């Protein structure tokens, strides 16, 4: 991963910048990429359509399973109706941040 990171650790938890591809044929974390503005984001494909929060719920389900955290601890902080989002995760920032950093390091650049 480059010096740009989609992860921000705060006093309350962590924030993760993502780019969602709703209506995909599969549900998967595709990797990470730099957005046109130079910010890093994790690219996530979900089969749910981008309507009534279905794609957001699918993202929360996918990440909660991958990280072993409750879906209720994940919420969209910025961009609820857009493809680019910032998610906020409740939990111990040090422990969760370290876990997510290791997970991010395992992702491929796309």
Write a brief structural summary.
This protein is of the alpha+beta class and 110 residues long.
Q: Main traits of this protein?
A:
single chain; 110 residues; Conserved Hypothetical Protein Mth637, Chain: A; alpha+beta
Structure description:
The chain is 25% helix and 34% strand. It is of the alpha+beta class. It has a single domain (7-105), classed as Conserved Hypothetical Protein Mth637, Chain: A (2-Layer Sandwich), CATH 3.30.1200. Strands 1, 2, 3, 4, 5 and 6 form a six-stranded mixed beta sheet that branches. The termini are close together. The mean pLDDT is 91.
User: What structural class is derived from the secondary structure elements?
Assistant: alpha+beta
CATH class: Alpha Beta
Total DSSP helices: 2
**Main β-sheet: number of strands, strand sense, barrel status?**
6 strands, mixed
**End-to-end span in angstroms?**
11 Å
CATH architecture: 2-Layer Sandwich
Q: The CATH topology, please?
A: Conserved Hypothetical Protein Mth637, Chain: A
Strand content: 25-35%
Mean pLDDT: 91
Helix content: 10-25%
Number of domains: 1
Give the SSE string.
Answer: EEEEHEEH
Low-confidence parts: none
**Shape annotation:** globular
Specify the CATH homologous superfamily: YggU-like
The gyration radius over C-alpha positions equals: 13 Å
How many DSSP-defined strands? 6
